[in-house]
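A favour, since you know our structure tokens better than I do. Go ahead and set the record down below.
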Amino acid sequence: DLFDVTNDGIHREQDRKLIHDLIDVTYETEVAGCNYIFSKTFLCNPHIGMEGIVCIMTDVSELKQAHEEVLESKKRELTTGALRLIQLSELNNGLLSDLEKVIFHTDDEGSELIRQTITKFRLRSDEKFWLEFESRFDDVYESFYSKLSEMFPCLTTGDKKLSALLRLNLSSKDIATITFKDPQSVDMARYRLRKKLNLKQDENLIEFL
């Protein structure tokens, strides 16, 4: 009486798997509006063999809801952190731009020193950002990178980083600010990513990710 007739296919499928593979099965599905984990094993009779199936139903509705609330909180933290980083990057870009102007008012040795300083700063900022970002991103979207690599093994590290930033629905301008690139370069990288993902012209890249 508990089971929705339209959803009984999953139970039949798992029962067949249990009987065929002779291995216990565990799966999750909805029953009467609640989320349950089903754990199934054999009921054996030493004389006639398998006599039936024993099933334990565990209601995980509250646990799942709590998990969703924690996940939503982490998503907000991730987005807030990205926006805060954009603001900081805009400030840093302004300072670097001022430094580049100083190059024209110093000698060759001073100009080279300024260029090296700018390059080092960008490299260190980029490395620090990705360590923090990917740690938080993995907490929220656990299987994103693994699924992406599995489906599209040809993607470079840069492609995966861009995909993660697009997954947060960041604009090309925001991505350019964070990565110290110009928006046109980001747009070109998005175009190349679409090609590698084999997207049709009418398919939205961010929705796909």
